[in-house]
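User: structure tokens for this one?
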Amino acid sequence: MMVSEARKTVNRAIIHILRSQKGVYINSMEKVTFDITGMTCSACSARVEKTVSQLNGVEEASVNLLTNNMVATFDPAVTTASGIAKAVEGAGYGAFPRTQKKAAAQTAENPAKLEMQSMKRRVIISAVFTIPLFYIAMGEMFAWPLPSFLTGMENAMIFAFTQFLLVLPVIFVNFRYYATGFKNLIKRAPNMDTLIALGSGAAFGYGIYAIYKIAWGLGAGDMAVVHQFSMDLYFESAAMILTLITLGKFFEARAKSHTSDAITKLMDLAPKTAIVLRDESEQEIPVDDVVAGDVLVVKAGAAVPVDGIITEGHSSIDESAITGESLPVEKNTGDKVTGGTVNRSGYFKMRATAVGEDTALAKIIRLVEDATSSKAPIAKMADKISGIFVPVVIIIAIAAILIWLLLGQSFEFALTTGISVFVISCPCALGLATPTAIMVGTGRGAANGVLVKSAEALEVAHSIDTVVLDKTGTVTEGKPVVTDIATNNTSRAQLLALAASLEKLSGHPLADPIIAEAEKEGLALVTVTDYTLIPGQGITGDWDGKLLYAGNRKLMGQNDIDTTPLQNKEETFASEGKTPLYFAQDKELLGVIAVADTVKPTSKQAIAELQSMGIDVIMLTGDNARTAEAIRRQVGLKKVIAEVLPEDKEREVRRLQQQGKKVAMVGDGINDAPALARADTGIAIGAGTDIAIESADIVLMRSDLMDVPSAIQLSHAVMRNIRQNLFWAFIYNSIGIPVAAGVFYGAFGWLLNPMIGAAAMSFSSVSVVLNALRLRFFKPKWHTQTEGTVIAGETNTITTKIEKENTEMEKTIGIEGMSCGHCSAAVKKALDAVEGTQDVQVDLEGKKATLKVSPSITDDMLRSAVEDAGYEVTSIS
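Assistant:
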């Protein structure tokens, strides 16, 4: 395990280095997905995987029995895709390299549903002939009425031959078991079909032997022999075994068809056509024909065809299918849009930036498919057991027959035990235990905006005991905003307008939020000249003959500006981790504006959730200790490591691992990539950089820290489900095989009928798949609210400040034309009249209105309400 983890870390580091040094090295390994035909159980998939893995040049092969495919990573200089396909065919199966378009068609067709339809036909045909066969065979035993030509010793041959004719169609329609089973037996790679073929074949063969004995008895006049073998034909057992197993396969296929629902739904999101502007006219073309740089038109109600940037217009975009976020997101010119999302309102033009396999949706589908095709360590263990399971069962069945014969039992008794052992043994339950849970679990995660890149990542995540958080962009929003404005003998609007006018010349990172705040409030900026930068203190400039100052307390002191009126405010802001900036005009202090990178609304609750799960949470930040301490208090952290250089993050993660911790690293920036690669589980914020996302094991599409405990809980749920599946599969076989072999016959008189064994075997496979499907209803359980109150229950039973914010949006409307209290009252009345608005507040001096609106309220509705009241709307944010 230690070697495996070390190799994983080294490989990730190498991949990171290679990807970050483009052009220095080109990775020669190639990854190809193959469609595999002829697999029926985990012994088949284990054989295919073993065959391919042993080929020279193959680095890794992973076979998925659920989706009937294989992902092979190989060196094209040593072997080829056709060479791999040939090796698989040599093992008795079919292999076909899958192209991207073929992959899309394959997913659209859903192989599991095609298999289900095939199984349904076989079940119907089998049942049509098995039911009358069973009735005839058991009629005399249960005193059921039978036609006279089927009763009596004189009609024994008709009785036997009728059953023989009825079993033939059942064998014919299910002949695949025999073709595959005996072929694999000859190749010394027996699988579940081999067990079915041997069990039902032995029953059928014994039935033919019984017909000959009946014929001999009738010819010799030995009615005792005729009666004995009329009751031991076993044709009904052969037919019932095949029918029940096929019925089980049908239920299994039907259940399996739902495990790939997540991928199918993602595929369905991709629109089939797009409206492109060419030669100044709109043309509807297949989305596959769209190229990067095309200008597309997206109308209200239409899906966004590809990834791009809005060049004209605005919209309210429903991104729930991609991010899991239920509220529509307002988009304007310059904003990015993602293919597969839906334009709920508005009309816009966009320039395509990513098409085909490069779109975010295509990458998500590829991630989900890769995760379901990969194998967790626990699955590899189950596959190894399945690989030796069938040969062991065959040995047990033959041994049971020989031992009972040596003990003096009849051949019929001994054969019954052998057939029962063949048909009750179920390697399928072992083989399906892990991949079904992995597929449903990763699909459920994708539906909630949590993308798991591999099955191994899902398994490792459940053992995490320490979570390391990057601060900027992870715990906080990642961009500074104006948090507080304190004035001194001036209005808020006047201070903000002068501050933004002066800061506009500086280009300093803290200038942007001040300018943005002024623009949001619709304030007119003034012209500032004679701009001067004073290093370590601030800036100055001239406005209409007045000298303006912006900077720290040192700048104010050196220019004899008294900061006493607002000094307490400044110290309070600083203690809260904010950056206070003084502003003055000539020798008069105007005020203090505090700027900070604010904490995300859900960060505090997410950290509380992780701590309630018994997980240590540590925050790393390059900020000074004072700011780090302020953030720590806000979010309820117990430990923060401040003033950490980007290159030191990986070292901190390694130090924790050396203490025996299982570490998850959550980050979003390029400087987080080494730490993400080093961690046992790397979790990237979806809004982060491509390099961070490439280096991570799990990607959070919503950039919401609450998805971290959700992902860990999902991992716990999947691993619990896998253990349940493996436990019942092992228990079933551990009990079923000894009972079938007659181990308890001497003490308790227990002997298993082959038909009951066949039904039990089918039930075991179906139960494993159904248990895995329970993961489709997974919901994270939250135990805390933002205020810290401990509660318990499902997500939908909690009423928190977070949920309230998720159902309401706060809007700020810039308004021109208000001049008195009557005006502000008229605006308030107009906005109150819009159904779905509440908490309307009108600021006459600030020329704005703030209110909360439901998701159904659009900006156009608010604009119309204000303009109908006789006022001009300058901005809505």
